Structure formats: structure tokens, C-alpha cells
Amino acid sequence: MYENTSKLHFPDNFLWGGATAANQVEGAWNEDGKGMTIEDCLPYRNVGVSDFTKQFAFTSEDLQRALHAEEGSNYPKRRGIDFYHHYKEDIQMFGEMGFKVYRMSISWARIYTHPWDDEPNQKGIAFYRDVFNECHKYGMEPLVTLSHYDPPLDIVQKYRGWYSREVIDLFVKYAKTCFKEFGSQVKYWLTFNEVDAMLRHPVTSGGLIEDQFPEVPFEQAIYQAMHHQMIASALAVKAGHEMMPGCQIGNMLTKLEFYPFTCRPEDNYAAQHRIRSIYRYSDIQVFGEYPKYLLNEIAGKGYTVRMEKEDAQILKEGTVDFVSFSYYMTSCMAANTEGLDMAPGNTVNGVKNPYLTSSEWGWQSDPMGMRISLVELYDRYRKPLFVAENGLGARDTVTADGKIHDPYRADYLKEHVKAMSDAINEDGVDLFGYTWWGCIDLVSESTRQMSKRYGFIYVDLDDEGNGTYQRIKKDSFDYYKQVIGSNGTEL
């Protein structure tokens, strides 16, 4: 249990809410002019929780199999939780909990059926406009991510994903369309979700399929694609500031905290090196230039990243206003892991920490790690912070009377709220918002399961796509409502 050291207190205007992603909730994958995304092609795979590499393995053969799949094949992201047809009901329930902010994403392929189209898809624009109107009806500010793990399939097939520089202009066109159409409704934006993640799962982050790069080391292709995303992000930030005066545009990184497994200096360096690797690309978005350690890393591997002469200036002119991040867990690092217990986690593996408890999926809960992360990020960037994702995936049971009792979820939330309060009041961190990941049950990104549930709202749907899609409040629904209603002081 986390022992907070000061009285619970949050700023009066603190933004409490929840978070989802289009590819995990919307469904309606082929309705109203929506184009396909790479997520529509990822099948359900029931593999062991300790081997996430199998979840993200994807080949051109897998893609062809998906494109020719028979109706009824289990591609979970195609159905999501059918938010596309339930959004009014879902947002009403978010409003009942008292959300001040709803973090969501726009599907690029719903705005442009094909990214090279001259005109956007008006039905897609109408859908998101309606979603934002519903948010405002209940006093919620939308926090919108432009790209959350769902690159359009067209850029995968025609351009080999973000490896091609041509994708930059297509993305900037899409971003400007969003700013033009929704700028009056949305003042908080993020460019790319977990911008560092392409190094861990390049298919969903960058649309990169390894067997499509016979002429270049795949890791070099990933670095090249990452550069193109950095340029696209900077150009989008600059355009957003020009088109929407007063808007706030942030970045989003995966905040993974690693402790040295022992006090051996080698273990401490291993932890420092791993943490530093998380900041490779958020450093660019905040400071407007490549850190020397990243340039050394690329050169040391013998790789070359093509950069145009104007890129340095673009990066300088497109820095973000705030830093947002996901935080779920911590793990340990050791210079030599032979014989040590390894813990699976948020798409990474580390040494298991004997002082922490683990979820069924191996993620080690660590509220103190949240506080450490907040201090570390604020000291590094000196920008306002926003917790864009935090939550607990667990199996929930519906009792005979139709209830879902989930005290484990409320306990997890309570301990992390304490940690945030201490970071604000004791450590001087400028934190202005918090969105619980998967505020309504959704298709898990890492496992593509429904049975790994995060939500305060249960959705009657199983891993095979069977169910009524009925929404049911869990006990944690009322608990989070109490937390928000008290501005984080009644836990």
C-alpha cells in the first residue's frame, strides 16, 4: 500500500477523466466510408501472457490472410465495442461519473477513406463532430490523439508505412483537416500515441512489416520511420498553433520506470540506459532536436537516417506545449539477467521486482513508481504533465444478480491518486490531468482480448465476439464518481 505523505489535494481545475482509442472501441470498420487500418488486420491470438512478441509478430502473409478472411473470422478490432453506434450511451455514462475530460483518438482512415483523397469523408467528420458535441453536453473537454496505433492500410501497402517520406504530407493534410473541422470543439491535442513504441511494435505504430524490407536492416527502417513521424508531429504542432490560437498540443510517451535489481553499479547503469531509451523521441518533441545519445546510437549500429536540410528547423518550430504519458508498472534491470525471474509487462520484459505484486498478466503494480515518474519527467522537461493512461487489466465476474464487484480496480486507482497528490504537493510537479485507461471495457492492445478488462463499465462481449454489447456499471464506477466529485480528496 502506498503511504501518502501529505494531505490529499488537487488543483481546482484538475481534469479527471478516462481514455480510449478509436481502433479499440469504435468497430464499424467498413461503414460510412471508413478505410481499413492495419489494426483491422490483426487476428485474435490466444498466446501465453509472457510472450508478447507473438502478439505483435505480423507478416505479409498474415496481411493477405486478413484481406481474404471469411466473414466471422476473429479480428477483434473490426468490432471493438461498437462505440460507433453506442457513443451517446457511453458518453452519457462518462458524464454521470463526472468526467472533466475524455481522451480519445480520431481514426485517420475514417476522415480520409484513402489518405491521398482530395476531399475528406464527410460522414466521418460528422461522426466525430457528434462525439465532441456529446462530450460538451456533459461538460467534458475532448483530448484528441491524431494517431493511436492505427495507420491506414493504404500507407502500409503503397508506401511501406512511415518508412516513406511521402506519408508526412498525407498526415499533415489529415491533421489540418482535423484542426479545421474540430478546432472550435477541441482545445487539447496529442500527435502520436506512445511515440517511442515503434521500436517495440513497428507494425501498429508505423505500419512496418519486416519482410517488406529486404534491402535494408529492419531496425534502420524503423529509425527512418521514426524520423518521419518526428517531422510530421512538428509540422502538425506548428499548423495547429497557427490554425487554433490558444490550443494546447502535447506529445505522449510510454513511461516505463526501471529500478536497478541490485546496488551493483552495472545494474544501476543498465536501469539508467533503459530509461534513457524511453526518452529518445520525446526529447525531440520537447527540445526540438535529436539528443546526442540517439545520434550516437544510430551511428554506432552502422545505420544512416536520411534527413533533409530543412528538418532541423522544422523540429525547432514544432515543439509541444505539454507532456503526456502512459504509466502502468515498473520492473527492474540487471546487467546480467541469467537465472533471474522475468516479468512481462506493457510490451516489454524486465526483471521481476520481489517487493511488488503482479496482475494476472504479469504487470507489477507500483504507485510509488508513478510518483517517481512524475518527478523524473517534470525535472527533465519542465513542461506541464498529463497522465494520459493508467489502469489495471483484470478478469471481471458478473454475479448472479448482474453485478460486477471489482475492489481491486478501486484499490489500484486509490493508491495511484495518492501518489499523484504527493507529486503535486510535495514534489512541486505541474500535473493538470489524469485519464484512466479503458474507462469502458475495450479490446486490449497488447493481447487483443476482451477478457482483460480495464473499465468502470462492463461490456457484455467475450474474446470470440459473442455477447449482447450491453453496458453495465461496475462497483468501481461509483468509486471513481466519488473520487472525481471530491476532486481526489475522498478515497
Characterization of this structure:
The protein has one domain: TIM Barrel, CATH 3.20.20. Strands 1-2-3-4-5-7-11-12 form an eight-stranded parallel β-barrel, surrounded by four helices. A two-stranded parallel sheet has the order 6-8. Helix content is 39%, strand content 13%. It is globular and about 55 Å long. Helix 17 links the parallel strand 11 and strand 12. The model has no long low-confidence stretch (mean pLDDT 94). It starts with 14 loop residues before the first strand and ends in a 6-residue tail after the last helix. Helix 11 crosses helix 15, helix 16 runs parallel beside helix 17 and helix 17 runs parallel beside helix 18. It contains 18 helices and 14 strands. It is of the alpha/beta class.
Short description:
With 491 residues, the chain is an alpha/beta fold. Helices cover 39% and strands 13% of the residues.
